[in-house]
Hints:
9 helices; four-stranded parallel β-sheet; single chain; eleven-stranded mixed β-sheet
Amino acid sequence: MIGADVSVAAELLQSGKLVAIPTETVYGLAANAFNSQAVLNIFKAKNRPSFDPLIVHIASFDWVKRLATVFPPKAQLLAETFWPGSLTIILPKTDLVPDVVTSGLPLVGLRMPNHSTTLELLSQLDFPLAAPSANPFGYVSPTTASHVADQLGDKMDYILDGGACKIGVESTIVSFEDPEKPVILRFGGISVEQIEAVVGTVSISISNNSNPAAPGQLDKHYATKKIIELVNSPELLWDVDQHQHYTIGYGEGHFSFNLSPTSNLDEIASNLFVALRLADQASQPKIVVSLVTESGIGRAINDRLRRAAAR
């Protein structure tokens, strides 16, 4: 059931149910982070492996003191700069956070989403929300309520409709396992340049393995059912046979889907998952997508595309 009633969503979450929630990045599949059985139901609904930890969504800085044992100065500075926003900060967890949320890891990822509907929802609850993206594990993330309904509608009790997601790619994840040395574990809506402007040089560890320290680190993720081929520039799509290939590009030229006629990276990010979903439903058997410049949010866009294309 899709609706916009925050009170209905709150009542269902209080009773241990699953609710899809809107954020500025993608839609999340939420449950009471303190209810281990409800959290387990997230993993079951998504067919998500138990070794892939979840992000905990909060509405105020007060929750950090309850959920994390330390809040290093650089982490505080990032939170004060980018929260609410598409930044997840990983900190050593307190015993209040169930191990199922963190896949047994001693660290928890915290985020304050920049979406008025979900912030209102969180303000009505006396618990935070564990919430990965609201899609079957490994598939393209949802950026509208209808995307959620199409794929997981029968797995939850309510889809809280907050409109289309503005940013369109998941949050950037920064780990403070070492309080003095922030490490970026996932590219996302906040760029490396923005983070380094606040806290100085950071390390980057965008690992590709089967033992992730954070969501979105597996080799194959954000994937379509069809094979995706990547090219280095949209010009290389101009001569591709569009009867056999669904082409996704940007700028000048004719494509099956133009992510941004002006080559605006923010617009490309916002449209990316929509384009991949349409490509998967189209008649062409293959998808060809152009990578973007490796700067700003472009790093997150290319990261999603490379993982989606992995076979």
